[in-house]
Design goal:
Length: 767
């Protein structure tokens, strides 16, 4: 940038030529290098009580990291938080480690032991630069209840972390001291000056941000869907945010910075795939100023962890190429390698393979992501040259040349993105989950990462798992955009029946059937969720059709909401708590042994329970007002299931003693992270009409009166426009020849066809 500024007094034309030569130079000075990303390593807890190189656990952990370094290299390693357990404030921890210490002393010593030894492991294994974001477990693990020992000693949790990773133990100086342009690399005069920092390595600027923000008291905003974990919530505000923006501004002026990457612990864009996690999130998500600044200043990648799975999501703006990459690193059974040049970022996800549950030290490519940047010179109309030259002359006199230059000649950078496997860009508009019930596969055929029954002697990929006492060896594949991580595990008593609403089969459930999604979520806080499915039953008892509830712990409280849909004597009921529910204002008769379709849709984020839309057979039904009509805020660590309580807490049988497992048929289950529209209902109800020309149709089903149409296409168009139209038949009426008329009949029920007096017949029917 400096050589350009020296020539400002010569005017704009020279600048254009100089910028073009800079663009050519970009491809001539590429320097290839790489780094690794290991989110949620979660494997250093033993060091808290057994620290140092003589620890009984040193060798096993060192061998893993040394293998990664020797095999996949990397100038440095990026760790988006959560390397330990961190529950050092508890009575249970005091029983096993130095009970004579105060809680404050014990936390600080354990933190120094754990983080200091882990830092040594990584350093001696080859990574002399470790960029680590602080996670919730480095702060003791959520939840942070006001007045608890954990909250009283948050400073000690942070001190032990910062001293180990960010401060030179010999000199006492911070490792990261070089300013970014005119801005300090750390947010001085804030409470984050030892846990947030910016660091340039070669052609990449890394910005590590501590997003755990202290509130005056326990914080949960149901209306906005914020907080929910006590006094700490995730956000960036005030001087911390100002520092972040100033660093980004300065980075845009530094010619040697070709890529900008930001890391914190929690995801910003929702939804993301999750497994066995608390599901913490960033307040306001992509609407936050923190995210908007990354978009504004062309940040390339935002790295996060927390959720123990892989999801890549692009910023929704067409003009932005900012990517959120959430990844998994647990005990190093997943990690990323990032290869860097001046114009490309090539990211590879590796997944562990082998017979042992851990420490196989064998990996296969699990996904790929490539960003290719093209830099073009800006052009200016000839008519503006004279005016621009005058402005530059004035700018030189006012010492504002640099800022004016950046405004008049912003570099135009276009980014091509190629992705596959677990790093394929997530399509948030389509259904995240879609079960067709057409086939069952062995569990080992499609790995669900993280799925285990917590037995040490189990293999890496389970061949069986238990859901509420029933052994499951098969899974229903998810063909939605969340992919195989959200395959549904099923017991043998979930039969595939040829009595299907669509496709080859439907699911046939009995009271002993089990269907659960081992993956966590995707419901989270106030996030929108919608689902739909077909069902057929004759039971009168209140049965569980869909359930989402707490996973951790044996007791269930309703400070955060569950989401449970039942059918009671033919009438659906939607629960958000044990005594809080909505149901149709009029009694339904949906247990008559016929196929019926139900959809449940949130019209907006954090809506009230009474605002949830319920559709039965495509028609909106009016529901009653619940006892407590509060804004929905879902438990973020729950699991969902169909036909029963699935993997959720054993406490649900106590709070819902009247509910029974589902008995009957279920088909075509869909789940979205947005409100349902008419086209979604048509898709979910399988109203994808097929035109069969010159075909006689057998009459079966109740029809409307003939519909008048002007042209042949109107018959189909009018039917598609009505959710309660199940098919149509049209024909050319020749009975009143020579006057020939087109006639059309729409069906109220699912038809197999219709025959009328006709010379040619076309049937539009649901397959």
């Amino acid at each position: 940038m400096v050589p350009l500024l020296r020539q400002l007094h010569r005017g704009l034309p020279v600048l254009i030529v100089t910028f073009v030569s800079l663009t050519v130079a970009l491809s001539e000075t590429n320097e290839d290098w790489s780094f690794n990303v290991l989110a949620d390593w979660s494997y250093s807890e033993e060091f808290a009580t057994d620290p140092g190189i003589d620890s009984a656990h040193w060798d096993a952990k060192y061998d893993l990291i040394r293998h990664m370094y020797e095999t996949y290299k990397g100038d440095l390693i990026v760790i988006p938080g959560d390397t330990t357990g961190g529950k050092w404030d508890t009575k249970e921890f005091a029983e096993i480690y130095k009970p004579e210490l105060t809680v404050k002393e014990r936390i600080l010593e354990a933190a120094r032991n754990c983080h200091g030894t882990m830092k040594d492991v990584f350093t001696q294994a080859g990574y002399d630069k470790i960029l680590m974001a602080i996670g919730d477990h480095e702060y003791g693990g959520n939840r942070w209840n006001d007045g608890s020992d954990k909250v009283k000693n948050l400073a000690e949790f942070r001190q032990g972390f910062a001293e180990s990773y960010n401060v030179n133990p010999i000199t006492g100086q911070y490792f990261f001291n070089d300013p970014i342009g005119k801005e300090p690399c750390r947010p001085v005069d804030t409470s984050f000056d030892d846990t947030s920092y910016a660091y340039q390595h070669k052609n990449v600027l890394f910005i590590t941000v501590d997003t755990f923000y202290r509130m005056p008291k326990n914080y949960l905003d149901r209306k906005k869907g914020l907080g929910g974990e006590g006094v700490l919530t995730c956000r960036v505000r005030g001087k911390h945010l100002e520092w972040f923006e100033n660093v980004l501004k300065e980075a845009k002026k530094i010619d040697t910075i070709k890529h900008i990457m930001v890391q914190t612990h929690v995801p910003i864009i929702q939804p993301v795939r999750k497994a066995d996690c608390s599901g913490q999130f960033m307040d306001e998500g992509e609407d936050s100023q923190f995210w908007k600044l990354m978009v504004k200043y062309d940040v390339d990648i935002y790295f996060a962890g927390e959720v123990h799975t892989n999801t890549v999501t692009k910023d929704p703006s067409p003009s932005s190429s900012l990517l959120q990459i959430v990844s998994r690193g647990n005990i190093m059974n997943n990690f990323l390698k990032v290869d860097v040049t001046n114009s490309t970022l090539n990211i590879t996800a590796y997944n562990e393979v082998g017979d042992s549950k851990t420490h196989n030290m064998e990996y296969e490519v699990h996904g790929s992501l490539m960003l290719v940047k093209t830099v073009e010179a800006s052009t200016v109309e000839a008519a503006t040259v004279e005016a621009a030259t005058a402005e530059f002359s004035e700018a030189v006199e006012t010492s504002d040349a640099e800022s004016l230059y950046s405004e008049l000649l912003p570099p135009k950078i276009s980014t091509e993105i190629y992705s596959s496997g677990v790093l394929e860009l997530l399509d948030r508009t389509s259904a995240l989950v879609h079960l067709t019930f057409d086939e069952k596969l062995p569990l080992e055929a499609r790995q669900v990462i993280g799925m285990n029954d917590h037995k040490v002697d189990k293999p890496l990929i389970n061949k069986s798992i238990f859901i509420r006492g029933k052994r499951c060896t098969k899974a229903l594949p998810n063909i939605g955009s969340f992919g195989q991580q959200y395959d549904a595990q099923v017991s043998a008593s979930v039969k595939l029946s040829k009595k299907a609403i669509n496709g080859a089969y439907s699911g046939e459930f009995t009271e002993t059937s089990r269907l659960g999604f081992y993956a966590t979520g995707p419901l989270a806080a106030g996030g929108i969720i919608s689902f739909s499915f077909w069902f057929k039953t004759t039971n009168v008892e209140e049965m569980i059709m869909f359930h989402y509830g707490h996973y951790f712990g044996q007791k269930v409280n309703f400070k955060k909401d569950v989401y449970t849909l039942t059918l009671s004597n033919g009438t659906p009921i939607l629960y958000s708590g044990a005594d809080n529910f909505v149901k149709p204002a009029k009694q339904q008769n949906l247990n008559n042994g016929q196929w019926h379709h139900i959809s449940v849709s949130m019209p907006k984020k954090s809506c009230r329970l009474s605002e949830v839309d319920m559709y039965i057979n495509g028609k909106t039904v009016k529901t009653n007002t619940p006892q407590e009509d509060r804004y929905l805020f879902f438990v973020t660590s729950g699991k969902m299931s169909i036909g029963g309580f699935g993997y959720s807490s054993v406490g649900f049988e106590k709070v819902f003693p009247n509910l029974r497992s589902y008995f009957g048929g279920i088909d075509e289950f869909y789940l979205w992270s947005r409100p349902l529209e008419k086209d979604d209902l048509l898709l979910a109800m399988q109203k994808n009409f097929i035109m069969r020309h010159n075909m006689g149709c057998n009459k079966q089903g109740t029809s409307y009166k003939p519909v008048k149409v002007k042209v042949k296409a109107d018959c189909e168009i009018k039917c598609r426009a009505k959710l309660d139209c199940w098919g149509f038949q049209r024909w050319t009426d020749t009975t009143k020849a020579p006057k020939i008329r087109e006639k059309c009949i729409h069906f109220k029920e699912r038809p197999k066809g219709y025959r009328g007096k006709s010379s040619t017949t076309s049937c539009g029917i649901v397959p």
